[in-house]
Design a protein that fits this description.
It holds the Pfam family DUF1256. It comes from Paenibacillus curdlanolyticus YK9. The protein is an alpha/beta fold. It contains 7 helices and 6 strands; from the N terminus they run βααβαβαβββααα. It is globular, with a radius of gyration of 18 Å.
Length: 196
């Protein structure tokens, strides 16, 4: 009789519930985070993607725009993208007293393209294209940049640059409006208008 190897049980991953929203929905979604920020929590943005793929540039575009709005703690911008290789190198871990908001592109249903999938809990980068990376963040915002199809890499490459740029502009503005505390002053509001 041969010995049977016992299969190692993989710990099941808790499936998070995401909701598809427009830019106003991002502001509503982040209202609880804004309250925590007013109580002293700091905010860190982890914007995942690359500048070498049109659809996957959503995260770095949002990151660059958040930097322009004056947010200091942003990982992942057009000049320093945070792609799968960089995620493995940087090993982004939670920090006490800091709320991490993860931003990435995703593919979805045709009627969701141009909207945003938001959820409380970490985001699994690269999950839609078959990568198995550690989850990141406390809150997740994923821009639905194109329709999910049989070849996700090709779909991301063939995504409309105009759509991605408009979505990034809309998302960055909504995030900034949602999280900007009154204590930050109105001088930044004037700066935001100049950026539009």
């Amino acid at each position: 009789m041969g010995l049977r190897r016992r299969r190692q049980q993989v710990k099941p991953v808790e499936k998070k519930v995401s909701v598809t929203v427009d830019a106003q929905g991002i502001q509503t979604f982040l209202s609880g985070v804004a309250a925590k920020r007013q109580q002293g929590a700091s905010i860190r943005f982890v914007c995942i993607g690359t500048d070498q793929s049109t659809g996957d540039a959503f995260g770095p575009l949002v990151g660059s725009m958040l930097k322009e709005y004056g947010w200091a703690d942003v990982i992942g911008t057009l000049d320093r993208p945070l792609d799968a290789k960089q995620i493995a190198v940087q090993q982004i871990s939670p920090r006490e007293g800091t709320i991490t908001i993860t931003i990435d592109a995703c593919l979805g249903k045709a009627d969701s393209v141009g909207k945003y999938a938001v959820s409380e809990g970490p985001l699994r980068p690269g999950e839609g294209v078959g990568l198995k990376l550690d989850p990141i963040g406390d809150y997740a915002i994923a821009g639905v940049v194109n329709e999910l199809g049989p070849k996700p890499y090709r779909t991301l490459q063939a995504t409309s640059l105009y759509l991605v740029m408009e979505m990034a502009r809309e998302a960055a503005g909504a995030i900034d409006r949602a999280l900007r505390c009154q204590a930050d002053g109105d001088s930044l509001a004037n700066h935001k208008e100049e950026l539009r």
